[in-house]
Give the backbone structure.
Amino acid sequence: MPFVTYQDKNYEIAAQESVLDTLLRHEVDIPYACKAGVCQVCVMVCEQGSVDLAATDGLEDIQIDNGYFFTCQCHPTESLTIRDADENGLFSQARVVEKSILSADVCRIRLKTATKLYYRAGQFLNIRMQGEHIRSYSLASLPIQDDFLELHIKRMKNGQMSNWLFNDVQPHDVLEIQGPFGECFYQPGQLDSNILMIATGTGLTPLMGILREAIESGHMGKISLYHGDSSQSGLYLHKTLKALASENSSIDYYPCVSTENDGCDVDIYKGRASEQAFTNHVNLEDSLVYLCGSPEMVDSAQLQALACGAAASRIFADPFVTKDLRLGKER
């Protein structure tokens, strides 16, 4: 069996196992998020041995030349010696210019960078907490209109990062950011296509940026946005989206609550957002589909969208993968 050497310790790699999973199985605490080679949180440097090309897909040439690779995408057949990445070139600084509470568990943070950051609405950033923990957060801001970066932070029960951002970070604080990343953004040149958007929780964040860019671009197709949560309080932009839909005849907004049966407003749909969406949209042959939120919803909705005729190349997904927080100590 090959092994991976990290911080002068050897860890045996099981068959078909990634470097990341090997280290996690041996209870080595290293940063990771999506496990899909997208977020770039788990990047490390290979000092000895070789990594497969799939483990470097998405990195810059100079990073690849210096041995950078994604531990989640590397399945070695020979032993490797690795080290932590030099983070000087990976992260930059952004200052908090505004913070506001959107609901009991969601806050909005707006950031400004010293130099303009080029991104597409719907992409995401990585944020590093005090040089240690790293998490990914999507952007709701629109570059052409906003001179800030807008993030929506959902406070997780045992989440170290989300509780730090929600409770401790204040205006004028400086955060370390990395990015932007992601392929879930508005597709130009398809103004006549209908758009189906489905989000759960703060999966709404990137869809807000995409929706705003569609409006700014003069999108002519029908845009149907389904936002779901387990309770009405989780529909944290309900009033904003209702107003946006009332001002734009091409936008339909469907707020959905999956568990509450009583006490919801009359305009709230009962049931899961994806169930409501695929009840209303049975033919998606000419539609663009955006899916953001829990991995379970995204995976299921992708299959349903394909079954309804959507082309795989016209389905854009951003699953919000989080670490298992059940065993963590609650703050």
